[in-house]
Amino acid sequence: MSDSMVHASAVSWPRFPSLEKLIIQKAQGLTNFVIHSESLLNVVLKSLKGLLQLDVVAPALAALCVLRCFADASARSHPVARISAPNLEILRWSDAFDLSSVQFDKMENLQLLGPLGTSYFYVYGEEGYNQDCLRLLQHFQFDAIPGLRLKLVYLPDIINREYLMEDMTVLPDIVFLILTVMANGHCIGPSLFHVLRKCTGVRRLKLALRSSDYLEAEAECKSCICDLPPNWTSEQLVLNSLHEVKITHLRGTKHENGFCEAAIQLGTWAAMLKEVTINFCGSITESTAKELCQMLLSFTSREIILKFRVGHGSHMVFFPKTNVHH
């Protein structure tokens, strides 16, 4: 597709009056991409090499995903984009973002913001690692958005790297937080604490634990810095709105020991917590799952409905528990 074709509105309502879904990925030559449509409901743009300008005017659009489209532009200049989608409900922007050149018109119906898409917010790293995500969060800091999706990643080796969580100073006003953590053997407690203290009104929390398979054969983290700052377990955090927690992909390995400490603290912070659901990975044995469940139950001093699920292929074994005072 030539640049002249793209510049003259590649997707317009008169040409495609009934088009509802548009997916373009791994394309080249879309230097200036214009989408004007009255019918589009879902747009996914992934890896558009060479994209410099994006213009979207779609009043019916409900979901927009922009992923790694401005990778080339960010190295030379700021991405230029204008998004006019007043009925947008889901926004996933995992790309270069600059407040001076990316314009979002008012999105009063936005239900879920996923600023990281399939990329990450690095807990430890170098200055500038998370600048695009931070700018996007800053843009929406005063908005009430029901759901927020964040992905935190710990590099396997964090020695001599900066702790970057303190750069995350604001989050939108949210009630549902989807937090994915790739811990790589490190303690997740401090980063979990930092995120939650920025959204104390959250009502539902989904915590997904991801790991690198190659760490299974290695010793657990011996780093003295991944549990910093050291006072996170003693600081006050009140989550009176949090009623429901769901934890997924728990494998019960020694690399997740730090998770247990964070889970115990979570029960302390959330005085109104009513229900916790833990979905174990299918690779865990039933006995290991029960052992871990009993350990978590022993640290809970009030009545909470705890549901444990262990997958064996397509078969699910349920362990509903109602804890009483110990």
UniProtKB/TrEMBL annotation:
<dbReference type="InterPro" id="IPR055312">
    <property type="entry name" value="FBL15-like"/>
</dbReference>
<keyword id="KW-1133">Transmembrane helix</keyword>
<keyword id="KW-0472">Membrane</keyword>
<keyword id="KW-0812">Transmembrane</keyword>
<feature type="transmembrane region" description="Helical">
    <location>
        <begin position="174"/>
        <end position="196"/>
    </location>
</feature>
<protein>
    <recommendedName>
        <fullName>FBD domain-containing protein</fullName>
    </recommendedName>
</protein>
